Amino acid sequence: MIDLFVGWPAATYISFATCTIIILFAGVRITRLADALGKRTGIGSALFGAVLLGGTTSLPGIITSVSTAWQGYADLAVSNAVGGIAAQTTFLIFADMIYRRANLEHAAASLENLVQCTLLIALLSIALVGLTGPEVTIFAIHPVSIILLLAYGFGLRLISDTQHQPLWFASKTKETKPESEISIPEGKLSTLWWKFSGYTVAIAFAGYGIGETGIANANITGLSETVVGTLFTSVATSLPELVTVLFAVRMGALTLAVGDIIGGNSFDVLFLAFSDFAYQDSSIYHATTQDTAFILTINLLMSTVLLLGLLRRKRNGIGNIGFEGFMVLILYALAVVVVTS
């Protein structure tokens, strides 16, 4: 398939655009379903956004990273993962701009989202150890990949315990919008699940197409895998996150919006583990360039800034975004400049 794309560049661009449109369309549809299922099942918007919605909207990125890693494109696989985290965190700032009542970090404050953000920082730190530490492998797999999966599972357990037995509460203000104030859509629960599954499959196939066209783009244009992964495939596969967060904010599902981004980012760190399993030569952590480690470090800074924003809970700022939002935008711009220079 890649040979076909390389021999016919127009097919690459058309396929890339088609897959992107599919991801956008499915992302819009799946958001309403996620909000409904989170309430109908009793899971809650924050936890549903972190696990099921976050994982589902991350499917294009998973498949892109795993398929490219399997074919030996280590830099593309890793940069797609870490670039997606940076893009998605920036998407949250765009959502903040359209929510006029207050800063999103203030209005969507919840203990679950704070724990999720802390988990994300921990996962990014573990991944950074793999990228910068000594090259150690077991059956061509770095131990960090196993640790990431275990840490993610433990983190989800903490989030669940936090939801059911909270020992800390975010004070409510007039700008805070609890989930109970948002209407619960009607319809058969089984029908909602079938629709959710159908859009999930569509997103998965589109993710594979993005991965194949990403490889072709690198071969056709001569751009490095890091640039293609960080700026093109990662943004395209992250579009469900942009659609869901903007749509969720417009619906008033603020906790779902923030939970989807942070939870999706945590899941995206696992792309590194999945890619390591798929990469056949050695550990994927040491088959990448220094630029990927730099982008991962930027992600760590962006997530820390976001956590500070959730804790600080400033109501208003310039242009409806606070100091933390501006810092996230500056960090993302810095990442783009360094990768493309």
Automatic annotation (TrEMBL):
Task: Give the principal location in a single coarse category.
Answer: membrane
Q: Note the superkingdom of the native organism.
A: Bacteria
Tell me which Pfam families the record gives: Na_Ca_ex
- Annotated membrane-spanning segments are 6-26, 47-70, 76-99, 111-131, 137-159, 192-211, 231-249, 256-274, 294-311, 318-339
In what way does this protein cross or attach to the membrane?
Multi-pass membrane protein
Q: Please provide the record's keywords in A-Z order.
A: Membrane, Transmembrane, Transmembrane helix
Q: Where in the cell is it found?
A: Membrane
Domain Sodium/calcium exchanger membrane region per the UniProt entry, residue ranges: 14-154, 198-340
The protein in question is named Cation transporter
Lineage summary: Bacteria, Pseudomonadati, Pseudomonadota, Gammaproteobacteria, Thiotrichales
